[in-house]
């Protein structure tokens, strides 16, 4: 008799991430997860004490996914924060369930803020603040906060279906906001 395939922690996280990406974080149940992972619920609870513990790993995977998405996003605009905004709004458009998990819900229990997620290990926000300073912004930190409220609002409007502007219009709005806030 052949030995059954062993389900790993990575297999479970990948299956849960797949559910989250397609249906939403709140749709993960042990039975649905077992079906997607191709196992019974037993390996899930052998590896994880409870579903909340597993969800923490899914959150981490989603945060890494966003970080990779932003790193791969083309940075072509000279006005600071425009590319950051386009990537954030684009992520909301393309992956609304992941966006909700990372930027709208209170799922993280490791005290990572939204700023920490957006800034990432690559110091994304810091680079944009430095660009704004180099271009003459007198208070680039405050300028970032004003831009961030605008960008986050657009991202949230995207996942609720209230933002359907094309990229050119979005760029124009981001550039106009930057100019207005920097005066």
Percent range for β-strand residues: under 5%
Q: Any idea what the shape is? A: elongated
Radius of gyration: 19 Å
Q: What do we call the CATH topology?
A: Tetracycline Repressor, domain 2
CATH class: Mainly Alpha
Task: Explain what the structure shows.
- It is a single chain.
- With 183 residues, the protein is mostly helical.
- The chain has one domain: Tetracycline Repressor, domain 2, CATH 1.10.357.
- Helix content is 69%, strand content 0%.
- It has 10 helices and no strands.
- The chain has helices at residues 9-23, 30-37, 41-47, 51-72, 82-94, 96-104, 114-119, 124-134, 140-159, 167-182.
- The longest helix has 22 residues, at 51-72.
- The model has no long low-confidence stretch (mean pLDDT 91).
What brief labels describe this structure?
elongated, Tetracycline Repressor, domain 2, single chain, 0% strand, 183 residues
Short structural description:
The protein is an all-alpha fold. The chain is built from 10 helices and no strands.
Spell out the blueprint of helices and strands.
Layout: H1 9-23, H2 30-37, H3 41-47, H4 51-72, H5 82-94, H6 96-104, H7 114-119, H8 124-134, H9 140-159, H10 167-182
Helix pairs in contact: 1-2, 1-4, 5-6, 5-9, 6-9, 8-9, 9-10
